[in-house]
Structures are given as structure tokens and as C-alpha cells.
Amino acid sequence: MARLSQICTRRCGRQNVMVLASFPGVSETAISPRPRTAPAPARLAVPITGPPKRVAALKAMGLETRGDLLDDLPFRFEDMTALTTIAEAIQSGDDEVTVVGRVGSITERPTRRRGLRILQTRLTDETGEISLTWFNQRYLARTLEPGSRLVVRGALKLGARGAELTVKSHEVAGGPDELAAMGPGLVPVYHASAKVSTGVLRALVGEAITDLIDGVADPLPVELRVRHRLPLRRDALRAGHQPSRLDAYETARQRLAYEELLLLQLALLQHRHDTDARAGALALGTLGELSEAFRAALPFTLTAAQEHVLTAIEADLNRTQPMQRLLEGDVGSGKTVVAFAALVRAVEQGGQGALMAPTEVLALQHLRGAERLLEPLGIEIAYLSGDVPDKERRARRARIEAGQPLIAIGTHALLHTSFADLRVLVVDEQHRFGVAQRAALSAGGETVPHVLHMTATPIPRSLALTAFGDLDLSVIDELPPGRKPIKTSIIPEAKREDGYRWIREQIAAGRQAYVVCALVEENPDVEARAAEEEAERLASGPLQGLRVACAHGQMPSGDRQRVMAAFAAGELDVLVATTVIEVGVDVANASVMVVEDADRFGLAQLHQLRGRVGRGTEQSYCLLYSSVEPTPDGRERLDALVRHQSGFELADVDLRMRGEGRLLGEAQSGRTDLRYARLHSDRKLLEQAREDALRILEEGIDEVLAQAANDRFGDLIEALRRA
């Protein structure tokens, strides 16, 4: 009998499916037409078209293709089912209303509260008028034109002067057509710009959903979707833009966030695997006599947290897979002694260790610690920095290049040194030390060093698993016993002189004080002048008679070191400085930290500055002087510093306030590399994604998922490789 057809089993995606082969002479596509919902990635990659200026403005917002529009979820929704006329809003007596009308002229007036200004206008429709009020949004006086049609949501109050609405959100509606397109139901509101309104984005996204949504592919394996009861990607995107209820939007966002975090974890973990496969490290064996002597000579007992971290590091050093570990610890938690213990392991095996710091101040601080704890054990310390005389620097490099067992300490000058036998590298306060840099220090050898990244800037676990997801994480979450919490206060301008008198009392009792000036302009020269002028003002005014000196980054290195050494020796009472003292300064007798214009500093920076005191047994204090008109965010940062002593708690506050920022740290806040995930609230999703990624890579990742991870985060991984 002639065979009319042939049934064959073909591997398709992730599962075996039965595919009907075509009749002889008939194309397979003719038998199997393309399903309506088949993936169509090429259509998603079609560029957005329209007026050139609008296309350019969309590109500046990161929106270049029609697929980008689908990925750009709204950040909130307006409930247009609640839209009423002004007369109905007034009669309803509801606390919160949504109305539409035309605005009149904008007026601005100050208030008795410093820095608080009010903007007001009248909104009218065919049924009546109402007063609108905004707080601290002065830009609206320039951007809202009288006669504009405005949709407004806010809190309504009825008083002697009539109906007044305090605006919570508003949107300019171009005309009747645009207003009609906004409702009824939940209307998405997108992040707009001065050149592209949320209404334009709403229209473009709506067209993209109609034309493209059925062609959206889903990279997640079926078994993973089933196990976690996840909807299809296309359904999640539709619900993300056009939800029937707000909880449907959140369900959609979380499904997309899980996928995004999974792809990120896969990319980072695969990068770690590829990096480890390029070159191995030397296993350092068990603890030797030198390590035992180091621990026995310590003038203090290690905390349980330090011991726990050392156990993890020991396990790393005993493997031929290079250690890549991030060590977090709050200010003063004892990270450096842990790092020294790792470096000692290199020397006792006949190899070399290196500790690289970002600044000379911090490098010198580590040098002083090494001289105190390591040199008495007979360990050679080679300090390399720009201020070391050329002859001595050449001699030290010669010993390093000859393979002399030692520990080198320095700044980035270490990168220009060829280590003959570098076994352990500690990188302080840099977080990122890339493949290229690690290889450069290995002098072309077949092995690379074990690397310990160390930071005193606490990072929330959720951010650590994303920004540093290719590193193992250790945390010292315990301070040495006997440390007293630093008393932190916001000092109002009216009590400034009282603050100075109190500082004099502390100095009279034998203590010392720091005064830190803010960088008001992005200009180091201006910052330096501000510090010098403040030192002169204090020395001739409120702190007259005290020994006051100044230190800043524009001073010659030798001069700055002499000033700071004099302060450390107790020869100065007050050190006026810029943020050059943010890290690496450890003066136990300093018990007062004064921060001028404190609201201009970031929260992590404020915590670092506060950590310069509280290192002795005396009670320490941090006095925060704010600028004349602090921003609401600035005031919130100061309030958080007063409330929280823990750097990890402050890191969580900082993450909530600033967002994730760029994962590689090029920008500290603003637009994020993540589209859907919110690290301050999606921690369980992240932990699940990490667990799933580890399992998928162990079992073997399929091509579709691997390609999706590369498409989404390939640029990030390439940047890591170039680091």
C-alpha cells in the first residue's frame, strides 16, 4: 500500500510532540498554517514610527521598538469609573474624588514652614468650579497653561472658602477624543517626558497590544509555569497594561518580575561558571602555624559572625575553584581582621597576598593595621602608592615580581605590578573587580588569585543577589561587644550656637571632633575652598582657641597625611574635612561628628561618616545640620539616620527611596536595569528565582531559556567581562 503520510516524533522546544509530516510534493506550511498565537519576535523588533522628534524622544526614554512599548508597564492607574462632575463631587461628600475641567491661572505663595510653597488654581467645568492645591511642585507654574484640560484626583474638603481639592495626581487631557480613550475603567498612566505625554504612550501601547500581543513568546519551561502556576507571558503583559482590577495588575507584574529575575540569575550564575572555567586557583590547604599565631596574637576575641565568615572563606581557599566572595559588614564590625586572616593564608603557603583600596587614606589605614597585627609575625608588608619614593617603589616591586612571600597594600597602583605568585587578593570598597583585572595581576600565570571583595556599605540581600549575583555572599552582622550606639540628632539652625558650645565641652573633656562639609557643587576645587573657609570661620569664631585644621582631597597627599596623622595622635582638637574621611579613618578618641548641609548627602554616605566616631569606649555623637531648604527626600534621609543605627536597616530604607539603580553601579539611582522587579518588595520572588536558576543550570539549561537570558542581560554580562 502506498504510504500517504508518515507520523514522526520530533523534538520541539522542551517536549516530545507528534508532528504530521507533509504529503509528497506539498509544503509543510501549507498543511500546518502558522497559529494565531505563534511567537513572532521579528514583529516585536520593528522600530516605532512617527514624527522624527517624537521617535527621538521615545528613544531617549529607552523605547525604540514596538516590543519595548509592551515591556513598559504603567506605574499607576486612574480609576475613571469614579469620574464625576465638579457639582457631583461637591454634593457626594466623598473624601477622594476624580474630576475633569479646565484650569485657570496658577498662583504660588510661601508658607510659614521653611521651604514649603503652595501652588493654587481654579478648575471649572459646565457644573461649577473648585480650588486646586499642590504642595512643593513649583515646576507646574511653568508647565501648566491656563485653559488646559486636566483630569485631577485628590482629597476634597468643604470649607468657608468653598470646595478645595488637594491634588494627589493629575494628567493633562488633550481633548474629547483623548478623554474618551481614558475611560471608563482603570486607565494606565505611564512615565512620560516633556516631549512625550502619557496620553501618547497610552495610544502607542494600545496599538502594540492589538497588533502584537499574540506574537509574544514565552521563554519559561512549561514545568516551571505549571509548578508556580504562572500565566503565559502574553497574558501577563496584557493584564499589566489593561487589568480588570488592580490586583490583576499586581499578579501580572509579579509573574513578569519572576521571569526577569530568573533570567538575571541564570545569566549571572552562568557568567560565574564561565569565569571559573577559564583558570583555576591554587588550593591553600589547611591552616598552618602562621595562621594559628596570627589568631593567638589578636588583642580581642573574634565575634561569632566573624568566625562564621572565616569558616566559609577557609572552605573557598581549600578549593581550586577561585574564590569570588563579597564580604559585607557594618561600620566597625571587624571585616579587616577577617581579610588579614585570608591574606596570612597566602603567605604561610609561600605565596603572596594583596589588599587594594580605592583611596590613599584607606590604604594607609590598612597599612597601619598590618604593621600592628602582621609585621610582628615576621610577615613582610610592601606598601605601594603614588607617594612612595620611586627608588623604594621599584625595590618593592622587584621583590613582588621575584615571588618574595609578602602582603602588598596599596591603591590602584597595584594593578601596574606583576605578581609572581599572587594567591589571595582583597579588594576593599570597590565591589567589582573584573576578570580582566584579576588576570592582569596574575602575571600571565596559569592560575588566578582567590578574590575577597569587602565593603562597609551594607547592601540589602535582594540587591546583593542581583547586582552581585555572581559572587558568594558573607555578612558580618554583629558588632564587637562594648560598642555604644551613636546618639544622632538633627540640630535646627536656631540652636547652632548651642551645638558649638556643646562641642567645646566635649573637647574640654578630652575628646576630638570632625566637621564635614558637603559638596554643594560638582567641583572638587569648590568643595576644598568650602572646607578651608569653614575651618577658618570656626577657628576665628565659635571654636576659637581650639586646635582646628583642614583636610580635603585637593591637598598634596603628604600634607593631607600629616594633618590626619596629627589628628590621630591627638595633636588637633577639630578636623574640618570633606568626604575624604568617609572611609579609612579610625581615631578611637574622636567622639563627635558634625555634618554640615547633611541633607545633601546620600544615606549610605551619612552612615559611613557617622561610623568615623563610636570606635572607642566613650559615648559618641553625630550632629546633623541641614541646609536652609531641605528637600522632602533630604529630610527623610536625616530622619532615617536618627531612627536607625544598623547600616542594613538604612540600606533597606535607601533601596526603597532610591530604587534599584543600575546593576553595575554606573548610576546610583534613577532608571533601573530591571523593568518589572522591585527589589525592596520582591525578595521572595528573587529567592525563588535564585533557587530555580541553580537547579536549572545543574540539570542543564535548554537553548530557548539560555537565549532569553542572553538577550535580556547579555550587555550586563559583557560589561562584567570587560571590567
List the helices and strands and how they pair.
Elements: E1 7-12, E2 15-20, H1 28-31, H2 41-44, H3 52-60, H4 66-71, E3 76-79, E4 83-84, H5 86-92, E5 96-103, E6 107-110, E7 117-125, E8 128-135, H6 140-143, E9 149-159, E10 162-172, H7 176-181, E11 186-189, H8 198-212, H9 222-228, H10 233-241, H11 246-278, H12 289-297, H13 304-317, E12 324-329, H14 335-348, E13 352-356, H15 360-373, E14 381-384, H16 390-401, E15 407-410, E16 422-428, H17 435-440, E17 450-455, H18 461-467, E18 472-476, E19 487-491, H19 496-508, E20 512-516, H20 524-540, E21 548-551, H21 557-568, E22 574-577, E23 590-595, H22 603-610, E24 621-625, H23 632-643, H24 647-658, H25 683-699, H26 703-722
Parallel strand pairs: 4-5, 8-10, 12-17, 12-18, 13-15, 13-16, 14-15, 16-17, 19-24, 20-22, 20-23, 21-22, 23-24
Antiparallel strand pairs: 1-2, 3-11, 5-7, 5-9, 6-7, 7-8, 9-10
